[in-house]
């Protein structure tokens, strides 16, 4: 019996769950579902977005609905149109083997008469935004006087958005005997007030600590001068080739400006804010879900309810005015058990806000330094090499091979590799060798913070050894599991492996120099699922050494920051055939001479370097603008929720 069966769910729901590929219930599902199935009870569930709460209320509501009765039996209120549609889709998926259940979405910005018609046909479940629902009630287009269930989803968000009156009015037209289930990430006074006014002895369940950020999100800040904010953003993107992120700005104007600059600089970015028409917003969201956009630059209001899985980073380009909002921002990543990172680009004058946020999220931030140009080059190169290794060859190319061979026949394999990689690398290095270090220094005590991977920072003035290893997230490692694996394989102590930074096909980690021989000897003779592990000493130390203040000098997104020492000289590929890889594709590119970003929406046929095209000496600094290409080459991957 699998764990879902133990919760008491019906056959048809279990079948749908199998189709959805959910293997085990999430925490909130495990806690809420049996209670809601067994009892007719009110419930308050404190759960962050991304914890699986839609199914936590969705499965029980579907199971308890009488499908033979066409009356509306359940009302679900959610803060935004976007979320309303997502919940509706999820519920439709859950109920697909349950005959006769109709779920109708009711939200602003679409035809009210069509929605009314859908309801008239018989909608046992209505999922609505409060404003439109109130409108429908006022016009007599909906009857919720017989409902058995009312669910308030993301109640704190709804109240934040000023829906208190609407919610109170709507709830007042529902019967007293119904059950109310309230889901909220936090419990501000207004939410508690609604609970008190409209609920009877609710069972309270909490997932994770109350009011705390999700355990799957790590929080980092980067201290910069105000004038370097944008450059810092670009570097963070460049240092993290697979970034898929929401970048938050404070105002619509900043949102638009940052997105425009990113697009100009060749990144796959777009703006999402309230000055866009609904159709424009829908278009942007579609591209984002389809991953043609890697950096969605958004205001808080516009990004509410964005529920896209696998967002790797939330970037606070500017901190929100209300620090409570930080929680909602960071909740966009680290969903469904995945790890995510919430980054704050911060100036000295804003530093104290970090401590206030820490108190709210009950989690510590880690201070990181903006990666240097050299580190970025290294990461990009490794990524590119990996990409070359992994690219699937389309045999259309066979027709052209004789001609290509003709051109390249005099080159040895080594020369060929060097030249291929240089196509991208020359641009990277040309850009970054001109750039300066933009990291600011914090005088705060946070320097003594632990590293992301939990290693203590005491002493270690000497300089650690940083390694590159050809295993990464594609081998199902995250930093924690890789650290465990390395400690076990190398028989090292709890804190002997640190600064573990996992990329897709490769990773970096540090040890103290006394372990270097052992690491090289043992690890280079280990096989992982039939593949030989290859470990090499990296040219940068990933911040393993501390500066004179005892502060970690890096880590960051990518392999950490160089601490001086051994890196001079080479960004050369570590070795032929290494699975570490030079990266080149898309977004990275600061356009001024830097690597021209290849974006994910770009047609892929552009050769290994993407369509970065040559940028001749003396040519303009402008990379080709990419904005017009959103969606021009949609990738096959489809988000599940769309
Ligand atoms: P939610 O918090 O309801 O927005 O869910 C976040 C994401 O997790 C959605 O994409 C769900 O489809 C997914 N999800 C929900 N429950 C599970 C589960 N038990 N196993 C795996 N994924 C889940």
Automatic annotation (TrEMBL):
Domain DEAD-box RNA helicase Q, chain residue ranges per copy: 2-30
Xref: CDD domains: DEADc (cd00268), RRM_DbpA (cd12252), SF2_C_DEAD (cd18787)
Domain Helicase ATP-binding as annotated: residue spans: 34-205
Superkingdom: Bacteria
Residue stretches making up the Helicase C-terminal domain: 225-378
Alphabetical keyword list: ATP-binding, Helicase, Hydrolase, Nucleotide-binding
GO annotation, cellular component aspect: cytosol; ribosome
A single MF term (Gene Ontology): RNA strand annealing activity
Enzyme class name: hydrolase
Pfam families xref list: DbpA, DEAD, Helicase_C
UniProt GO BP: response to cold
The protein's Enzyme Commission number: 3.6.4.13
Keyword Hydrolase assigned: yes
Chain positions covered by the region annotation Disordered: 439-466, 536-642
Motif position, Q motif: 2-30
Biased composition (Gly residues): 552-563
Protein name: RNA helicase
